[in-house]
Each structure stands twice: as structure tokens, then as C-alpha cells.
Design goal:
Length: 150
Amino acid sequence: MSRAVAPAPATDHSSALADLADAIMHAARLIRSWDQSAETVVPLSTVEAAVLEYVDRHPGCRPSDVARELRMRTSNFSAALRVLEKQEFVERSDDPSDRRTANLAVTALAKRNIDVIRSRRAALLAAALGDDRSRIDGARELLDQLRHRE
């Protein structure tokens, strides 16, 4: 059983921000570990999970858009997409406006996997944040700002 250790007090603003970044990274690893521990979830790499989550939130997106938005190398994105297609989590359809490309969508199988993961994530964060909607909204706002930063 590990004992929680209180973080050392930040000496300045920059140090406090670095500590926050460290905490965010640790939380991301914890959430990732929590996702993978579900018996009913098909394990995915971090890259595959990011692609799947993006396609789920943006049905009909083009592969090039996903790679650009996730700031991924084309080769890494292509490899992740191949895995997701092989596992029948993502399917392509012809783009009616441009026959040279395709539109992506998640399958029903992927949606079930995503629903289990999102439910588990909500439970994990509820244990930490409780019902205080202002804390939830504040944390979400901060993370959204980081996500959309160029």
C-alpha cells in the first residue's frame, strides 16, 4: 500500500505551472491504465485510442484531417488506422465530394468499447471531483484551452 506524499510547495509561478503539467501527465497515465484494466475493453495503444476518440467525435472526418488535428506523422496515423480497421473499430466510406479520399466512422463494436471506457473514466473522475460542477467545468476549461492551443 503506497502512502500519498504531499507535493513540495512551488517556489514560483513557473514551478507551479510545471508541477501542474506533471500532475496532468500523471493523471493521463492513470486514466490510460484504468481504461486498459477493463476486462470488456479491447486494448489499444495511446495513438490508436486518440484516433478512435477523434473519429467518434467527428464522424465522417477525412484521414488527413485526423492526422493534422492530432498532430501526428502520416506514417504513425496510417499504422494506427490500419489497426483500427483490422479490429473493425473504424470503417471508411467514399467521400462523395472528393473520390480521392474517404470518410471515417466508428463501428457499433467501437462504440460499445468507447461507451465502457467513458463510463469508467466518469467514475474515476467522480471519485476525485465529486459533484462540484464548478471544479469539473474549471478543469475541463483548462484542458480544452491546452488542447486547442496552436
